[in-house]
Write a structure and sequence with these properties.
globular; alpha/beta; 2 domains; four-stranded parallel beta sheet
């Protein structure tokens, strides 16, 4: 009865799409549905087996559980078989970069982490746990995560500000033998590459030939640059508020893509964003709202691709983007082509957990991007449909299979997944 552990995390509310519209009604009273939904939090822990008899109690707890503890002490690899570790992810935040709201602290980060936990469960069947820490010192965060790591199969870093997020992730990846991923970096990069792959298919352009401008070189921006270089981009300019601070030969940038900060020239920018846009095929915004005008867009090449991902206000006003770009995408759900991290992290961790991967490497992220892109059949791609919906049930299984296969091929998988690479299902309850 201890196979796969005895507990799981469940969301209190199912996540469903909206169908249709409300009929005409007379409003008698009003309340804030968002706050009502958050009353008492959005998640809870439930045991997998009901404890109704002494027999079951003695198996799930003392004295029976002692036998399981001794077995794990003799062979630590059995912790994956007889506890919830194999299906558990810690979602860790210090609250220093909560959504687009800034440094709100760990308490204010908690409802966001609860929402993330719900997505893990709803989309991938993963039991995730919100861990909000009351320190913003990188070494302290590293020590805390190292200390709790034995209880988890993976670590998802969330809403930790740059540049500390780079140091924290790097140190944890070097010191732990379980997958560690800062989703604000890599989840964004994976989904962006998937969307760009399909946008290029629609416009008939090739990644190796297009000129790409990335505006905003924080956590997400630098990760996107690294991912694009790994995927084969050869013409890439990176801009920040100082101007063009990332440029050079593709091979030079590719050689230092593990830490692109070494290639940045903040003290001697090579021009302004407007200069970078001249003749560019692709604009990727990960900065602040309304920094690109119609005149700026007109400087770009024909059939331009514009991804304006700043929230809540994109770098390019949506009404401008849809008229001045062949393909326009945002991070918002009220426009077509939403670049949403939830397309990536559930499947990436599902695939990594299923093969007990020791890390999430570049090959696994590239595989995830291609899997997301190819969820959409060639014949249904269009300017307004380059990325699948978060609610598309094909996404997570496709991503998980691709990630698991890449983990095996790159030598970081410690077990074979099931034949269909599907997650392990719950075991039947014990007999009384």
């Amino acid at each position: 009865m201890h196979l796969g552990g005895k507990i799981r995390v469940e969301g209190k509310y199912p996540i469903r799409t909206r169908n249709g519209e409300l009929p005409d009604v007379t409003v008698l009273s009003a309340s804030d549905r968002i706050f009502l939904l958050h009353l008492g939090g959005k998640i809870r822990v439930e045991g997998k087996y009901p404890i109704r008899t002494r027999n079951v109690l003695s198996m799930v707890y003392t004295p029976g559980v002692g036998r399981v503890s001794r077995a794990i002490a003799q062979d630590k690899s059995k912790v994956y078989t007889f506890t919830c570790k194999s299906n558990s992810v810690a979602v860790v935040s210090d609250g220093s970069a909560v959504l687009g709201l800034g440094n709100l602290g760990p308490e204010a980060a908690l409802p966001v982490m609860e929402g993330k936990v719900m997505l893990f469960k709803e989309l991938a069947g993963i039991d995730a746990w919100p861990i909000c820490v009351s320190t913003q010192e990188p070494d302290d965060i590293v020590r805390i995560v190292q200390g709790i790591a034995p209880g988890f199969g993976g670590i998802n870093l969330e809403d930790i500000s740059a540049p500390r997020c780079f140091e924290i992730e790097q140190k944890l990846k070097q010191s732990l033998d379980i997958p560690v991923m800062h989703d604000d970096q890599h989840g964004t990069a994976v989904v962006l590459l998937a969307a760009l792959t399909n946008a290029l298919r629609v416009t008939g352009k090739q990644l190796e030939q297009v000129r790409i401008v990335v505006n905003g070189l924080g956590a997400a921006g630098t990760a996107c640059c690294r991912m694009l270089l790994a995927a084969g981009a050869t013409h890439l300019l990176g801009c920040d508020k100082e101007g063009i601070i990332l440029c050079g030969e593709a091979e030079q940038l590719r050689a230092c893509r593990t830490d692109l900060r070494a290639c940045l020239t903040r003290d001697s920018p090579k021009g302004r964003l407007r200069d970078a846009l001249k003749g560019a095929d692709v604009f990727i915004g990960l900065s602040v709202g309304n920094v690109v005008t119609a005149a700026d867009l007109d400087l770009m090449a024909p059939n331009r691709i514009v991804f304006a991902l700043a929230n809540p206000d994109p770098e390019v006003a949506p009404e401008l983007g849809v008229t001045h770009a062949a393909i326009f995408a945002t991070g918002r759900s009220d426009y077509p082509n939403q670049i949403n991290n939830a397309l990536a992290f559930p499947g990436i961790f599902r695939g990594a957990l299923d093969v007990q991967a020791s890390e999430i490497n570049e090959a696994m992220k590239l595989a995830a991007a291609q899997a997301i892109a190819h969820v959409i059949p060639e014949g249904t791609l269009s300017e307004d449909y380059i990325i699948p919906s978060v609610f598309d049930k094909a996404v997570v299984p496709c991503v998980a299979r691709a990630v698991a296969a890449a983990a095996r091929a790159s030598g970081v998988a410690r077990r074979r997944a099931k034949v269909d690479d599907s997650p392990i299902v719950d075991d039947p309850p014990p007999r009384d």
